[in-house]
Amino acid sequence: MKNIDGIYKVDMLGPFGWEHFSTAFIHDGEYRSASAEHFTHGTYAAEDHGFQMEGNLTQHADHRPLFGRKDIKELPIKFIGRIDVDVIDGEARVTDGSRHSLRFRLNRLPSLN
After folding, report:
1. Is pLDDT larger for residue 29 or for residue 14?
2. Given a cut of 90, is residue 56 above it in pLDDT?
């Protein structure tokens, strides 16, 4: 597995361009991200230039529903992306058959070491 451990700034492609969405912590196969409106926990795999994460996204604010689902607080999601040096670019979908998808870009932040 490719070593992509680190802290990432997560941006989401919205109607007005790329918007900051959350901060993600990727380490040893575990994926965690959070913002004032949600948190996500799951597992990931990275090989060559491919990235795949599966987890649960919990919405805890009414500001803006994700994946068009304001009625459900916890959503099972899958993110598939491509790794290019310190950037992971891809698309996330709800795994319950929803037709909605969102485009995300993760940019690795400088190391604290």
Report:
1. 29
2. yes
From residue 73, give the alpha-carbon distance in Å to each of 31, 61, 69, 90: 19, 9, 8, 23
Of 103, 101, 108, 102, nearest to 84 (Cα)? Answer: 108
CA dist 95 and 53 (Å) reads: 12
CATH superfamily of 6-108: T3SS negative regulator GrlR (2.40.128.380)
At 113 the pLDDT is: 63
